[in-house]
Every structure is written in structure tokens, then in C-alpha cells.
Amino acid sequence: MTRILFITSNRLGDAVLSTGLLGHLTETCPGARLTIACGPLPAPLFRSVPGLERLIPMPKRSYARHWLRLWLDCVTTRWDLVVDLRNSAVGRLVPARRRVFHAKAARPMHKVEENAAVLGLSPPPAPRLWIDAAARAEADALIPAGTGPFLAIGPTANWLGKEWPADRFARLASRLTGPDGPLAGARVAVLAAGPERERARPLLDALGPRAIDLTGRTDPMAAAACLERAALYVGNDSGLMHIAAAAGVPTVGLFGPGYPAIYGPWGPHGRAVTGSVPQAELLARVAADPDARGLMDGIGEDGVAKAALSLLPNRIGRVTSLRQG
């Protein structure tokens, strides 16, 4: 029996972007037994991976004891393949017939391409999600019955400097779901992690009864099950943005001081929107003041709406048929 150890990120977005490589392994190594090590936050996304034998969440511990714990968990198995995207000592110190490691690319490339290079894959396999029945049942409970295709918005991020102003999200939602919008009459789902919930409150208040409040209510797997029903996702550069894109949702990601060439939403149905202020200037402002504000102010509503409109044709009918099927 083939056994594979797959060590991926503790960060949600990076973990999602590694799922294309993982999916390639499940397809090309049928019958293999997989052990996946990752951070606690993205762990639910891996619980239904085909061939999963063990899922090892790795909460950080002082003095890097989480790595020692992982080594103790894995050293007694002889692995046929170790794929270590953390480039860790564990990947080198467990017994293995073959081992491959993430290496920083010699030239700038998207993270999906960088991950694929670990196994020399070209073209790179796209990120994917294995959404299970439990997550879909949770989505059924969270999204009101009878809700048609809806707009999903992720108004927060893991850093305030990456958040587009809430009032602009509100105006964009009105523009897309108003009487003359492409999603006329649609409801608006607002998603945010638990610690970011209060930062999403101004948008929820602005939307009023049109809002579906999904802030702080789902783990990543349930969030994916909710998002796959959306007609469109618009949000800041965040893990939720990558979940939406991997779930097959047309995705608009907003980037200020971030790196859209490396972390933009992957695939033909993803768009990265940047602002009028050059990235170099934004990064210089951050270097001078880590708490600098207004870093996303250069992103105009017109540019975001244009990106959204380019993704919407034919999506509504497909989502409606999925909900009726």
C-alpha cells in the first residue's frame, strides 16, 4: 500500500492553493493512503480528501514543539512519498523512498504554479475542494430556503490594510443587486472569520434585510458549501477569496499592497482588481507605518463592477439549476 505524507500550510489561503497538487496525487496514485499535516484553521477543508488515512492539525507551540509532535507522529511509518510544502526538517527526518520540497521560485509566479513545480507539473493542476454532505447540510441550514443565486461578499481580511472600505462594498452590492443590476433582487451573503465579525458589521447594517449573515458562523468547509451556491464572490485578498475560486465561483479579488500576480484568484473565472496607487508606493507606506490606513482607497467601484460584470454571464442559470437539482 502506498503511503503519502503531505505537509501544507497553516494559513488558509496557502493551504487552499496547495489542493491542486494534492488532487493530482489522489488521481495519479489510486489506492494511496494519505496523511495530511496543516494548520488547525484549514484542516476542515481536507477531511474528505479521497484516501485520507490521517489528518494532523498542527497548532503552534512554543519552541517549535509542533514540529517535534509531527515528527513523532510520522517517524514510525516508512513513506513512499513525502511532499513537504513547508520545507521542514520533518520532511527530511522521516523515513521515505522519495521526498520533494517546496522551493522559492527563481522568477515571480503564482503560488499554484510554484506548488506544481514541486512535482514538475505543467500545466499546474487547479485548486479544488472536496465538499462533503455534512457541510452542504450546514449550508442548507444557514442559507434561507428559497434563496436564489446570491452575491457573496468577503469584506474583511487578516490585516486592516487589505480591507476595502465597507461603504464601497455596500454601494457595489446595491449596484449589482438593484433593479437595473445583473443580480436584480438577489440577496447578499456576508462572510468573515469569527475575530473579524465586528469589522463586517457596517456592511451588514448597510444591507439591512437583504443580508445573509454568515460572519463567524462557519468553518472553511461549510463556508465553501455556502459559497458554491453564489452567483459571484467579491472580496479582499484573503483565504475566503481562494475558497470561493476553488469552489468554482466567479471571484473578484481586491488587491492594494498585496501581490495579485502571486495570490490572485486562480483560474479563468477569477479577476484581480488593483487600484490607481502603484503597489511600490503602497508598500513604502506600509514600511514607514505598519498601521497605515487608506491603502485600498485607490480601488474604484467602477473597476470592481466592470470585473464583476465580465464574470456573470451564464452563471445565474447554472447556479439555479444546481439548487433545483
Automatic annotation (TrEMBL):
Keyword line: Glycosyltransferase, Transferase
InterPro entries linked: Glyco_trans_9, LPS_LOS_Heptosyltrfase
Coiled coil: none
GO biological process: lipopolysaccharide core region biosynthetic process
Superkingdom as given in the UniProt entry: Bacteria
GO MF annotation: an example: ADP-heptose-lipopolysaccharide heptosyltransferase activity
Listed Pfam families: Glyco_transf_9
GO cellular component annotations of the record: cytosol
Protein name, per record: Glycosyl transferase
Source organism of the structure: Azospirillum thiophilum
